[in-house]
Amino acid sequence: MTSASVGALLRTWRVRRGISQLELAGRAGSSSRHISFVENGRSRPSEEMVLRLAEHLDVPVRERNVLLVAAGFAPRYACTPLDAPELGVLREGLERLLGAYEPYPALVVDATYQVVAANRGIAMLLEGVAEHLLAPPLNAMRITLHPQGLAPRIRNLREWRAHLLAQMGRQIALARSEPLRALYEEVSAYPLAERGRPDEGEPAEATSLIALPLVIEHAGQVLSFVSSISTFNTPMDVTVAELAIETLLPADPATAKYLRSAGP
């Protein structure tokens, strides 16, 4: 492919980030003239320049490979299968992390919300979910929002659904992913369950000023969680870059007590 192709891609990322050529040049130690020449194909960027611009534009690792190939270079970042021996230490570390978080729920998902690992806290919450949703590969968004999944038990479904769809929308805007877009279209079309808002006095009231809680029933008990998502810092592999660890922190003492009594 020609350098014009990489220039067009870089321009798309720059516009998407809302950064001017002058601002990008300042961040990358270049000049706005050179950035302009790269974008319009008059200058062929070096491999180092492509990577530097991608870094300052916060381009996802997978898309950095696309930029490199478009500029005539080999991909820099591997895409190692998660079950490959090279990632054995990573898998072991994730399993230890999830286990240490018990009895509180925690899971690991990939870029399209496929569940790659989960602890027993998550397994407890999935009790009663339709079997077809639990057949591999499990998808966290599908399980959460499907009418035969967790949705009927989520007390603040409208708010939580809006939060999840907005999260997916932001990801789609940042990266070209047809599988993610297809998932978004699928789950956003699910009908809403009858229940849509928490009743007065439920745990969501106490945490609403801190963060939007997930308020969900389990075995007749109303549980409230605050979600936290972590990713790996400066990953050099596409697979690792696209992993996200989500932990559900009890949002009130009653939830923490219930999980400790019901957990392993």
From TrEMBL:
Domain HTH cro/C1-type: 10-64
Domain of life per record: Bacteria
First and last residue of the signal peptide: none
SMART domains: HTH_XRE
InterPro entries listed in its UniProt record: Cro/C1-type_HTH, Lambda_DNA-bd_dom_sf, MLTR_LBD
CDD domains on file: HTH_XRE
Pfam families, alphabetized: HTH_31, MLTR_LBD
Name used for this protein in its record: Transcriptional regulator
Species per Swiss-Prot/TrEMBL record: Streptomyces cirratus
Taxonomic classification: Bacteria, Bacillati, Actinomycetota, Actinomycetes, Kitasatosporales
